[in-house]
Design goal:
This is DMSO/TMAO reductase YedYZ, molybdopterin-dependent catalytic subunit. With 199 residues, the chain is of the alpha+beta class. It contains four helices and eleven strands, in the order αβββαββαββββββα. It has one domain: Sulfite Oxidase, Chain A, domain 2 (Alpha-Beta Complex). The strands form two sheets. Strands 1, 4, 5, 8, 9 and 10 form a six-stranded mixed sheet that branches. A five-stranded mixed sheet has the order 3-2-11-6-7. Bound molecules: ligand MTE and molybdenum atom. Molybdenum atom binds next to loops.
Amino acid sequence: MSTFTRGFRGRRRGEDDRLPPGQYLAEDFPVLSAGPTPHVPLDRWEFTIDTEAGQTHRWTWRELTALPYEEPAVDIHCVTSWSKLGTTWRGVSLDVLFEDVETTADYALVHSYGGYTTNLPLDDLLDGKAWIAYRYEGEDLTPSHGGPARLLVPHLYFWKSAKWVRGIRLLTEDWPGFWETAGYHNYGDPWREQRYADD
Ligand SMILES: Nc1nc2c(c(=O)[nH]1)N[C@H]1C(S)=C(S)[C@@H](COP(=O)(O)O)O[C@H]1N2
Ligand SMILES: [Mo]
C-alpha cells in the first residue's frame, strides 16, 4: 500500500495537495460580480483606511502605485468550487499601507466602488497575507476582475478579495459584509470548507 500511495501521490503532488476540499481546477478565470462593473477615472480614484478613532489615511492612484510592490504567486479559491493555482499578481502589501496606521481595532470592513462590502479580522490582512493588487499575469488588472485595483486575500475564499476596492474601515466590533449578510460564512477558510454560515 505504501509503495503505491507514495508513487501515485508523488507524481501528482503539488496540484492535489493545493486543492482544498470540494474544489476543482478551473481552466479559465471566471468573472463573479454581484452588480455592474464600476468605472472610476484614475485621477479621481482613491484608497482609504479609516480607523476606529476617526483618522483617515488616503492614497491617490499615483501614490499607491509609487509604493514598493510585491509580485505574489498564489492559489485562489472561489466558494462556487473553482480554484486556480499559481496565479501571479502585482500589488502593495497591506503591511506597507498599515505602517503609519494606529489602531487597536480587531475587525476590518472592506468596501468597494459600487457598494460591495466584505468583512474579515484585521489580522488576516497583515503579515504578508493580503495585497491591494493592480496587475494580474503581467497585465493591468481588467475592470471585470476588479481593475484598477482589488483586494487580494488568497488564504480565504475569493469573495473576501473585494474587486474595485475603495477602502478599509477598522472596527472594534465585527460587521458582516454583503455575502456574509446573505448567508455565506463569516470567515471563509477554504481548507475548513467554511462556505455557508453553518459550516
Ligand atoms: N466589488 C466586488 N468584489 C467582489 C465581488 C463582487 O461581486 N463585487 N465578487 C466576489 C466573489 S464572490 C468572487 S468569487 C471574486 C471573483 O473575482 P473574479 O471575478 O476576478 O473571478 O470577487 C469577489 N469580489
Ligand atoms: Mo465567489
